[in-house]
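User: Please write out a complete single-protein record containing the residue sequence and its fold in token form, without commentary.

AI:
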Amino acid sequence: MSDHGPARPENDSDASTDPLGRLRSWWEQAREIGSGIPDAISLATVTPAGLPANRIVIAKRVDDSGVVFVTSGTSAKGRDLAAHPEAAAVFLWPDPLRQVRVSGPVEVLDDAGSDELFASHAPLSRAGFVASRQSEPMDPDGLERLWERIRDLAETPDELARPATWHGYRLVATAIEFWSQDEERTQTRVQLTRATPADPWQQRRVQP
């Protein structure tokens, strides 16, 4: 049993008015209690060849349009999104057991938004973004040299500028599903969709 009390089936009434607000609420609760890795999402994209691809990334925030994350435009996922600018993400929190699926088009943030996200990272992370050629091949001794360069760059954090290929991305939510399970294994699924971000959300409850 959870130390944080039983998770009851969710009330559907608050989902359609502000589903992204509900997602933020669930996320904040997961952070407060340390449920799993609360900021991690499974991000699915489509490769230029049309094949599925998936990986774990860190969500930076959920705003009024969708889920924001960062990556290099030259990374595998960056190339995927350039070819097919759509994605799906899954948040999973084990305690209480909740899952949120989000899908829709993906947009690149402007320079100001990307600069803000870059500056929010610790110096060592920023140095890593500058030094790494993400997803490029590396020889067996390359990792040690890369880390040496990262450590050197991190010593002068004020000189670290955002690489031109490094961006913030927003997964603009056009479909969201909230799933939860209580202590009695009763599951609740609520789906919300909208044709475009300007349209109202349409909600339906579906069988688990």
